[in-house]
Amino acid sequence: MTTDFNRFDLQPQLVQTIDDLGYAAPTPIQSTVIPAMLAGQDVIGQSQTGSGKTAAFSLPILHNLKSGRRHVQSLVVAPTRELAIQVADAMHTYGRQIGVRVLAVYGGQPYNLQISRLKKGVDVVVGTPGRLLDLIRKNVLKLDQAATVVLDEADEMLSMGFIADIEAILDQTSSSRQTALFSATLPQRILRLAAKYMN
Ligand code: AMP
C-alpha cells in the first residue's frame, strides 16, 4: 500500500479500500478531522461539498464499529434525501471490506422497509431530521447507544427550519456520545447548538 492514509491508525481494510479507490493523499479536512475523531474528540468542520468531508467523518466511524451489534452505533443527520443517500452510499463504499450495515432514511419512502431493516440490525443510520424523529417516536429507532453523531451541512438544516428537530434527536442520544458538526458557514445559531451539545 502506498497511500498517505497509512499515517492514520485506521484498520488495514479501510486503508486498502481507500487505496483501491485511488485516493493518494488525504484532503486538508481529512488530515485534521480523522486524527481528532480517532482520538475521541468532538469536531466542528467548516467545509464545502467537494472537500472530502464525507470520508473525513466516515473513516473514523467505520474504524470504531464493532461487528454484529444489535444497536445503532452511529448516526448521521443530513438536510436532504439526496445528501442522506449520497452519504450512505459513500459509507457503504468505504466500509465494503468490513461489511458495514448502513441505512438511509428519509421522508417519502415507505416506513415498512426502513422499519424491517432497523429491526434486522443496522450499524449506521443516515437520515433527514423529520423522518429520524418519526422513527424515534414510533419506537423503532433507538439511539441511546450511538457512540458518534454527525450533523452534516448544519447551516442547510438551520435554513430549512430543522434546528428544533435536531435538538430533539440529540436529546435521544447519550451525553457520552462523540459529536461532529460540518457546515459551510457558522452562524450564531449553529455556534449556540454546538455550545449546548458539544464538548
Ligand atoms: P465530499 O466532499 O465528501 O462530498 O467528497 C467529494 C469527492 O471527493 C467525492 O467524490 C470523493 O470520492 C472524493 N474524495 C474524497 N477524499 C478524497 C481523497 N483523499 N482523494 C481523492 N478524492 C477524494
List the helices and strands and how they pair.
Layout: H1 12-20, H2 28-38, E1 43-46, H3 53-64, E2 74-77, H4 81-94, E3 102-105, H5 111-120, E4 124-127, H6 129-137, E5 148-151, H7 154-159, H8 163-170, E6 178-183, H9 188-197
Parallel strand pairs: 1-6, 2-4, 2-5, 3-4, 5-6
Helix pairs in contact: 2-3, 3-4, 6-8
Summed up:
The chain is 45% helix and 13% strand. The chain has 199 residues and is of the alpha/beta class. A six-stranded parallel beta sheet has the order 1-6-5-2-4-3, with helices on both faces.
Q: Structural class given helices, strands, pairing?
A: alpha/beta
Shape, please? globular
Helix proportion range: 40-55%
Bound heterogens, unique: adenosine monophosphate
Number of helices: 9
Total DSSP E strands: 6
Rounded average pLDDT: 96
Give start-end ranges of low-pLDDT stretches: none
Q: Rg, please?
A: 16 Å
**Widest sheet: strand ordering:** 1-6-5-2-4-3
Q: What pattern of helices and strands is seen along the backbone?
A: HHEHEHEHEHEHHEH
Distance between the termini: 35 Å
How large is the share of residues in beta strands? Answer: 5-15%
Tell me the major beta sheet: 6 strands, parallel
